[in-house]
């Protein structure tokens, strides 16, 4: 594979040299800009065949990665600083701009080109005179997606991976769509990234758009969107938005890692995410789907943070304490952790990596409940280790909703009427935190008291709890007499009906704090949530309109979680039909996805009688299993 030599050599230090903008030619002739960091002596490259570390990114191979920050740092490290660390440990480091981004040629089409381009880059890499034929991959978010994509094609030389908060198991169910609904973080991502691309006029035009105003006139269309100034961004965004049916377009390599589990390379992999990240399901599905082969060592790390913020102590308005950061608690540092991983699997160094626990996760909760000095709720938590996920000894219990708005393990016995409410697409329930990323300046993720506020888009009554809305159904347990550890996957099964041809149902798990001095009305902390678009209630492949008045069952799969509901708290389940702007609003008309210009109010019903018992199934770890949750000692 050709490499054009319009590159330039730059001395980073006496012992590190980089060759910038080496143009690597892909199978279709497009050239991708690539930086190669190598060890040197007195500023001259040392001729040696070494293992390599590869990261492919759309965010600029010379730009700071926000993920490269350690505990105590005020700003992330520069790319050359990270590369130099690994070069001095005996590696060649390769950073590459994805197709159509920064110095690479071609047109950017989000996610779709990464498999073939990654494979072609790997084939080029192992043929270079500085390569010993083996390489590992690393990277956060999109740079984890690029890893998963190239690995699905089994490239030559791939020996290990570190996938941080990304790598689509199935982008239809996590990352682009969820439960049939469209994740609007894709719209904010397109807007934010398009600002940095294009010519000066296009950038100025996008910056002049009022993105908040645009979110009030959805769905967007060709030439009628804030990213119309960058047509390639508008094109892929509208394509994602309108692709509501799970067809072959979703099974493409780069979007559908679970379709390649059987043939996925049997190489050691670290899978990391966090409970308020947008890729919880992808990470856990990938762990389960790739488990079971001794030739493929896996490690799973799940923290309490927002997307990629592995060394913070909080998410949203919720603090998890000094134990939360990865660095200093689970590992010495993120740099040192990766070096140990690469040393073990690229160099064969017996450094103890093989003996580390398969699962390390942070169980949120158990804090003081006071407002700390930063103004955050002290929710607390601790790291634990386990041999597998879900945790061995997990007990799954149904908590049923009842007509008196209670939530309990008692099944409904009486023949009671359903809960009925009107869902108006013009007045959706505002998103108050959650497992979100890339949402600025429209929404932000994390844990918050579930009440409207000026900082939350769509809030019309600041200070009013969401549970006060007529279109939000809230069900609470009695005050807990003991701690309840909910750790694992969650399923909500509802018996419902609607007079509209299509509508959504949402579910949210909430940890309800009792009133306190700092929080006189208590604090309703969102733990996880999910959604189902009813046209897909029977099949993701074959949507079907609702028959008015027909009672049917829907299944909602919120992201898994790990939270200790403390003694004195309550467990709450909120049910509604919207969560905007996390998900796009269902117009209730059965219009083609992303094209509905008219709306109708849906009268929706949720049943709770003996014959139609709606419930949330919680994974509970207690008794002997709870005692086995040993704090992780690094």
Strand content: 25-35%
Q: Indicate the structural class.
A: alpha+beta
Poorly predicted ranges? none
Please bin the fraction of helical residues. 10-25%
Q: Please, what is the average pLDDT?
A: 95
Largest sheet report = 13 strands, mixed
How many DSSP helices?
10
Distance between the termini: 44 Å
Return Rg in Å. 25 Å
Described by the principal axes of the CA atoms, the overall outline is globular
DSSP strand count: 31
What keyword list fits this structure?
single chain, 634 residues, alpha+beta, 9-stranded antiparallel sheet, 31 strands
Walk me through what this model shows:
Keywords: Hydrolase. The chain is built from 10 helices and 31 strands. Helix 2 (114-126) crosses helix 3. It is an alpha+beta fold.
In short:
The chain is α+β, with helices and mostly antiparallel strands and 634 residues long. The protein has 10 helices and 31 strands. The mean pLDDT is 95.
Topology:
Blueprint: E1 3-4, E2 8-13, E3 16-25, E4 31-41, E5 44-45, E6 50-57, H1 79-87, E7 92-97, H2 114-126, E8 131-140, H3 142-152, E9 158-164, E10 177-178, E11 181-182, H4 185-195, H5 200-208, H6 211-214, H7 231-242, E12 269-276, H8 280-290, E13 298-306, E14 314-315, E15 318-319, H9 334-347, E16 359-364, E17 377-378, E18 381-386, E19 395-401, E20 407-408, E21 419-423, E22 473-476, E23 484-488, E24 491-498, E25 504-513, E26 523-533, E27 552-556, E28 561-565, E29 570-576, E30 602-607, E31 615-621, H10 623-627
Parallel strand pairs: 6-7, 6-8, 8-9, 9-12, 12-13, 13-16, 15-17
Antiparallel strand pairs: 1-3, 2-3, 3-4, 4-5, 4-7, 10-11, 14-15, 16-18, 19-20, 19-31, 21-30, 22-29, 23-28, 23-31, 24-27, 24-30, 24-31, 25-26, 25-29
Helix pairs in contact: 2-3
InterPro entries: AB_hydrolase_fold (IPR029058), CocE/Ser_esterase (IPR005674), Galactose-bd-like_sf (IPR008979), Xaa-Pro-like_dom (IPR000383), Xaa-Pro_dipept_C (IPR013736), Xaa-Pro_dipeptidyl-ppase/CocE (IPR050585)
GO molecular function: hydrolase activity
Keywords: Hydrolase
């Amino acid at each position: 594979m050709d490499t054009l030599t319009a590159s330039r050599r730059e001395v980073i230090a006496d012992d590190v040299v980089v060759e910038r903008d080496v143009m690597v030619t892909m199978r279709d002739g497009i050239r991708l800009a690539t930086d190669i960091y190598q060890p040197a002596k007195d500023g001259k490259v040392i001729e040696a065949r070494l293992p390599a570390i590869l990261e492919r990114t759309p965010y600029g191979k010379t730009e700071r990665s926000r993920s490269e920050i350690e505990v105590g740092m005020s700003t992330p490290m520069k790319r050359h600083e990270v590369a130099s660390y690994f070069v001095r440990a005996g590696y060649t480091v390769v950073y590459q701009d994805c197709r159509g981004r920064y110095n690479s040629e071609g047109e950017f089409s989000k996610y779709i080109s990464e498999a073939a381009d990654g494979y072609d880059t790997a084939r080029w890499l192992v043929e270079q005179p500085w390569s010993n034929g083996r390489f590992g991959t690393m990277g956060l978010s999109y740079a984890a997606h690029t890893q998963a994509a190239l690995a699905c094609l089994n490239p030559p030389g791939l020996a290990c991976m570190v996938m941080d908060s990304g790598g689509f198991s199935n982008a239809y169910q996590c990352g682009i769509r969820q439960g049939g609904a469209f994740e609007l973080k894709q719209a904010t991502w397109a807007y934010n990234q398009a600002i940095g691309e294009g010519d000066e006029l296009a950038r100025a035009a996008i910056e002049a758009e009022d993105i908040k105003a645009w979110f009030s006139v959805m769905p967007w269309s060709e030439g009628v969107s804030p990213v119309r100034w960058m047509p390639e961004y508008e094109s892929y965004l509208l394509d994602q938005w309108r692709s509501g049916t799970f067809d072959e377009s979703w099974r493409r390599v780069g979007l559908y890692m679970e379709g390649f589990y059987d043939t996925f390379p049997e190489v050691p992999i670290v899978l990391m995410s966090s409970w308020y990240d947008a890729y919880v399901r992808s990470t856990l599905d990938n762990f389960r789907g790739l488990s079971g082969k001794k030739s493929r060592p896996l490690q799973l790390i799940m923290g309490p943070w927002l997307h990629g913020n592995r060394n913070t102590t909080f998410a949203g308005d919720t603090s998890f304490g000094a134990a939360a950061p990865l660095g200093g608690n689970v590992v010495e540092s993120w740099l040192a952790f990766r070096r140990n991983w690469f040393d073990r699997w690229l160099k064969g160094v017996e450094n103890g990596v093989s003996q580390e626990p398969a699962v390390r996760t942070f169980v949120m909760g158990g804090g003081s409940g006071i407002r700390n000095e930063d103004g955050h709720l002290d929710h607390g938590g601790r790291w634990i280790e386990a041999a597998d996920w879900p945790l061995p000894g997990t007990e799954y219990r149904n908590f049923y909703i009842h007509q008196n708005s209670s939530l309990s393990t008692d099944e409904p016995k009486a023949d009671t009427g359903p809960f009925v409410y009107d869902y108006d697409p013009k007045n959706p329930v505002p998103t108050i935190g959650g497992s979100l990323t890339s949402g600025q300046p429209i929404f932000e993720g994390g844990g918050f008291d579930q009440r409207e506020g000026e900082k939350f888009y769509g809030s019309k009554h600041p200070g009013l709890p969401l549970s006060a809305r007529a279109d939000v159904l809230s069900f609470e347990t009695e005050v807990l007499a003991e701690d309840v550890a909910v750790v694992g996957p969650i399923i909500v099964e509802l018996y419902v009906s609607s007079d509209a041809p299509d509508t959504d149902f949402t579910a949210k798990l909430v940890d309800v704090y009792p009133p306190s001095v700092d929080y006189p009305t208590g604090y309703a902390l969102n733990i996880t949530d999910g959604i189902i678009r009813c046209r897909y209630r029977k099949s993701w492949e074959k949507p079907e309109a609702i028959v008015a008045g027909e009672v049917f069952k829907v299944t909602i799969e919120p992201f898994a979680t790990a939270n200790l509901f403390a003694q004195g708290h309550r467990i709450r389940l909120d049910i509604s039909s919207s969560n905007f702007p996390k998900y796009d609003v269902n117009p209730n008309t059965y219009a083609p996805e992303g094209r509905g210009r008219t709306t109708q109010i849906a009268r929706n019903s949720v049943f709770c009688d003996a014959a139609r018992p709606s419930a949330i199934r919680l994974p509970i770890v207690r008794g002997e299993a709870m005692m086995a949750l040993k704090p992780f000692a690094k």
